[in-house]
Protein 1
Amino acid sequence: MVNQELRKEIFAKEVLANISALHRFALSLCQSKQESEELVSETVVKAFENRRQLREEEKIKQWLFRILNNVFISNYRKAKNNRRIALPQFEDSSFSLFEQIGTSSFIDGGTPEKSFINKITKEKIYQAINELPDEFKITLVLCDVNEFSYAEIASITQVAIGTVRSRIARARNLLQKKLWIYAAELGIASREKEKEHVCTCGNEEVEPLIKPQYEK
Amino acid sequence: MKNKNTEIQSINCEQAVARFNDFLDNYLKGKTRKELLKHLAECRGCMDRFEFEQLLKSKVHQLGNSDDPAIKEKIEKLIGSL
């Protein structure tokens, strides 16, 4: 009995040590602060109910994130208001926000792209991330905000590492398209025509495309 | 002294950009990393674009810098009731 109480106390300490990180993840996924707090609370309740299933105690952080991810997907995804700002119509994986604003004449104490980075608010980034499809949003936040490795993200979201890698690429691309709308609102970029990268390296003729060597 | 750059193959801008995500996340190793670094050293356009991608990633990362002490208190109370 004493052992059980002690184990519960140790588990509670471990959970509390990860609450801030869990809450940041929840905040990035949810539409409101209240919703994010409910998501964290439900995650904690589920973690307590299933704490005997935690086999590797050193992986408690990953395990808690996996529970939160599962709760979010099963409870919130269906109920969530599916309001999204329309993306530009073209499906172009090579889209670059940099190319859109790089030739802008908007300069506020530096290059146009640095001015844009300085001008963009946390709220706008939250909003843009929030409007991404869930699988991309979750992967991007786990990678760029919470700094999990691709292997850890694969474990949390229960997909293959290759899927994590492609989702990160797609998520960053989609995020840039979302932020492009914001840059256009600020007058830093035009929404009319995508500008192309002008090759200055002199290697345009280089063939073939060598697949990057990927290491876990 | 032998110039190590002569052993590294040149890549074009499209090939370089395709490696940005792996490089940003520190997954680009060995030959492919050296080829990208060589390209970035030679191509101002790609270097500027890469720096922008880096700045954007760090801006997204900053979303995780703020803590809300209230949530910890709420969860402590919740745990007490479990």
Note: Chain B touches chain A through 50 residues (CB under 8 Å).
Protein 2
Amino acid sequence: MEPVLTARVGKPNSRSIETYLADGGYAALRKVLTGGWTPDRVTEEVKKSGLRGRGGAGFPAGVKWGFIPKDTKGKPIYLLCNADESEPGTFKDRLLMEQDPHQVIEGIIIASYAIKCRSAYLYIRGEFYDGARILNAAIEEAYAKGFLGEDILSSGFSLDLTVHRGAGAYICGEETGLIESLEGKRGQPRIKPPFPAVQGVFDCPTIVNNVETLACVVHIVNRGADWFAKIGRNEKNSGPKLYCLSGAVNRPGVYEAAMGLPLKDLIFGDAYGRGMKNGRKVKAVIPGGASANMLTAAEIEDCPLDFDGVAAKGSMLGSAAIIVINEDTCIVNAAQNLSKFFAHESCGQCTPCREGTPWLYKVLTRVEGGEGRPEDIDLLERICNQMANGMTICVFADAAIAPPLSSVQKFKDEYRFHVENKRCLVGPKALVAV
Amino acid sequence: MSRRAEGSGGRLSGAAPPKAPSGPAPPAPPPPAKSTFTVLFDGKAIEVPKHLNLIEAAKLAGVEIPHFCFHPRLSVVGQCRMCLVEIEGMPKIQAACTTPLKDGLSVRTTTDKVKNCRAATMEFLLINHPLDCPICDQAGECTLQDNSFGYGQQFSHYDERKRQYPTFDRAMIGPHVVADMTRCIQCTRCIRFCEEIAGTGELTFLDRGGRTLVWTHEGKPLANDWSGCAADVCPVGALTVREFRFRSRVWYLQKTPSVCPGCNIGCNISIESRENVVYRFLPRLNPEVNDYWLCDHGRFLSESLNLRDVEKATIRDGGKVGEAHVPAAVERIAAEIRATLEAKGPEALFFLGSAHLSNEENFLLRKLADHLGCANRDVFADRSRTRRIKSQTEWLSGEEAAANLRGARDMGATPGRGGFGLDALISGKALPEVIFVADANFSEIADDAEKVAALRRARFLAVAARTANALTRAADVVLPAASLPEKEGTFTNVQGRVQRFERAYLPKPPVRAHWELLLLLANALGFGDRNWTPSDLLARIAAEVQGYGQMDEGALAGGGLLKKGDFAWKGAP
């Protein structure tokens, strides 16, 4: 597939508005604003394209826009671009923002037009200092060219776009956590309902969309919903998709492919990962960032990388961060590593998550350190099951249990070996006798 | 109910006493539109008011949903995850507090799933909570203890080190509140109280995840006027008040419904005492007066109720002060009054009531003066800094340093026709022969040497007193009088609400309640029945005093008892 979202990546001056305009940039915006498109037509087009949220949940973007109440009782509507890309293993939005910021900005403007938003925010994770700088420069260019500000392209539509830098919390990528943080409060998710589309930032109707989702909107308008819907395995999993490949492969990186790329192709294909480093075997793959269940080598044989394909394997596509773990990696060590992240990032408001995530980390540390007990394997499963499925306000806890629970269930023998022999089955610590 | 029409009904919890039925109740008019929802609790349908939270609705239905972070006056945060229930039609377990009420909602609270989930939350809460209840001051009124007993399990799978917060444990975070973050369960009630009720927002979450703790912003003190309430709403021993900490185990304390003596708002309190010592005040839930709250000024007056200087009656004879029996001392006063009455008539007498005394006592004093034909009587209260408390609907403020100025005036303890008052006495315009002060601690005036000297110009000065001051030292006869918890009566608050305070314990003889001393004196002067009690006097007040005819037992009793850390407590004091 010819690159769509990443068409300008790697080109000289890919960030500047001149390059973008020369490449046909802001044509979609012109089409919408001066071509007589109503906001509803944009929404319909996005609905028809089958575009699903690229942030992780895979919720249809057009349907989400349709949740804005028809009568907002005089309240303004806000669009928030979620650029708090913090899922371990994910680095696709960063690429889009740093290499082609105008594509993102154009998507934001079109989406704002569709939901009648007058003031949009881009919430970027604090560590993306370069991204924020690049975006701010691009926004200034867009203002100068009249794509942002009052009366854009003499259409009567006005929009202001503000970049807001986060302060470095994973949980602020959760949409209501992001909203709280943007309001200047402590970043902790809100109770839903009310959903943000009804009562979001500053208590006004709010749509939160991922960077990649908004970038896709540009191409849906440019080339039509049908074109978009035809890309991919089926209509429910359509469009071009950025995959973040990392781990023990020869060529990690961001790859654009049609939705539904077989996982094996991504790892072994010449255009993508080019196989495992040093010829090692695959032990496990995390298909959707740290929050997704691990897949075993057997499970990746016929796994199409789209929302429903990965879900059918009992995991999720999430942010399409494919982390490949090879046979030399101790699975307990991997789970311990990930659980440390979640213990660190829990916001601390709900009891099960606040207490459960450090507990998981402590138990995994004990097992990894050779002090595990036979009952610890059941204990890990028990703690995980006590934390998820409605036990907490947001799905952070559900994400936090994914690595330990799936690894315990799928690699129980390795855990048992660890407990019984007080050392790793594989990896550098495998031969260290305790 | 009370003299305010809106004083009747509308009470939130079942803890408040119901209206006393008087004969067959008139049929209630049909409501204009349905103001209730039908909610099923474990299959049992019940009508609940629409505005309630599911936890409150369950309480109405007699179904207990355990919880920590929910409080009826604070915003709903759904953080503790203890109130988990199953809702029909929802696959996942739900927090009751965040589930909106709607018609036909079907709630399951006893399924295995619910039990397991609650037990899971309890286990999570306890893994880092110290299990040293015997040395925790909250033990006995701890929601964590109660819920652990009711919904937890007897073992824990946790085998790691417990979390500790060095330097954040057992530290004063304000003039009254001691914080121990090791015991905190992060329910945020205290944070929300300071932000939403007090409006001062001193407290906040610091850090996150397993290291989350509640502390004050930048180390500024928790020093609002209601800081004790932040400890009140704490369901565990994380916030406790310095004044009460480790002074008594709570299960030894007897709860007596009373009214705060701090100002004229008349906050409903329970006096918590043990063996004739007051240990603390807690608010009683009265949505129309103080709701769940109590200001620090009132709360920490509790200590002062234990002060006692005057233990015996004393009579001064020629410069010498000697102890006497109370009846003998009363007879001495009566004799002086009789002699003056004969020699100079009632104009030479002066009776001073007190805004610290009950309606009954001021009423008795006024009736005695009337009996003697004396119009010279008065009542006085100091102005105080404005005290404020938030009822369910509005802020109330009190400007007086005594609880019952309004009641005392209503009882007629004010100068009668042709009589003079305290001003005339102090300025020297009036010079009575005999002065009787029903409460020697009626004002700061009583400790002001100049003003006491003005009173002392009378030939004979008699007072009833609990603590010593310039006035008692100057008096000819001092009668030992009871403190607030040692007697019963009613106060009339700033809203005109008549509220009863009950006796917690008997005074140590020969100390007697003011009304008993007044009745002794009245009897000696040929007025009244020696068998009168405060309730007889209240009946007479109802019959005689304008505006006091419509007193209702429910409103008199006031709010329901609370325990620290919980919001409605049904049970015997």
Note: The domain at 17-230 of chain A is CATH 3.40.50.11540 (Rossmann fold).
